[in-house]
Amino acid sequence: MEFTAKQIAELIGGRVEGDATATVSTFAKIEEGVPGAISFLSNPKYTHCIYDTKSSVVLINEDVELEHPVSATLIRVKNAYDSIAKLLQYYESVKPRKTGIHPTACISESATIGKDVYIGPYAVVGDNAQVGDGTQIYPHTVVGDGVSIGRRCLLYANVTIYQGCRIGNSVTIHAGSVIGADGFGFAPNQDGYDKIPQIGIVVIEDNVEIGANTCIDRSTMGQTVIHQGVKLDNLIQVAHNCEIGENTVMSAQAGLAGSTKIGAWCMVGGQAGFSGHIHVADRTFVGAQCGVIKNTKGGGESLIGSPAMDPKMFFKAKAIYSKLPDMYRQIAQLQREIDELKARS
To answer: Model-level pTM?
Structure first.
C-alpha cells in the first residue's frame, strides 16, 4: 500500500510542510530511515537525526523548531507519538486477514464457528465451544470445551484456553499463553497436600491484549477477570480469583498472587510483585521490581521498592543505605571506646 503525505495528513489531522505528493509504503525509525518510509520525531534526543534521515516523510510535533533545513517532507501534528500509533493501527487494520479452516484442524461437531473465521493447521476447537465472526486461530492453538470467543479476536500459535473460559471481542493473545489453568490451591495435611479443585473460570473482556507466555489462572470459584482495555506484557502470572481493572497496563514478569485486585488505569513496571488478597487503587503507578504487600491509598499514588513505599521515602532510605558501611565502622569504633572506658573505671 502506498500513501501520499497529503493523504496521511488528512487521516491524522496534520499539516504538510514540503512536498505533499511524497509517497510512502513502509515505516522506519528516524535514525534508520529509507526512501519511501515514514518516520516520527517525538523524543528530543533524536532531533539531530531529522537532518540526515533518508525517510521521505517525518511526523513532528507542531511546536518543534528546527535549526536547519531538512530534505524530508514534514507533517506537523499535536502529538507525533500518538499520530504514529494511529497510523500503525490503521495500517494493521487494512492488512488482509486470513480466513478458512485448514483440513488438519480438529473441530468438534457441537462447536459453533462464525463467519470469516481462520482456524490454522492442527488447531483444536472443543465441544460446545463458540468462535465469533472474523476471529483468527493460529496453528496448534487449543480452544477447550465450552469456551466462548468473541468477534475479531486473534489467537496466535500454541495458545491454550481451558474449558469454560470466556473471551470478549477484539482480544489478542500471543503465542504460548495459557488461559484458565488451575489456580495454585493446595491444603496441607499430615501426608502432604490435598488439591483444592478449581471450578471457576477466566473472563477476558473486550480489547484486551495478552503477551506471549503469560498465564492467567482460573478461579477456585467464580471468576478471574481481566477487564476491558487491559494490556499485559509477556511472561506475566495472574493467579486465581484476581481482577485487573480496565485500561491497566502491566510490563513483563509481573506477578499477582491469589485474589489480588488491581484497579483501573494502573501502570505496573516489570517484575513487580503483589501479595494475595490486597487491593491496588485506581491510577496507581507501581515501579519495576516493586513489592506490594498491602492495600494502596489511591489518589494517583506512586510506589517503588520492596516493600513498596513512596518514592521520596525510598530515595531517602537508599541514601542512608549507601552510608551503612561507614556508619557500622563508626559504631564499632564507638563501642570499642566505650568498652575501654568501662575497663578503666
So the answer is: 0.87
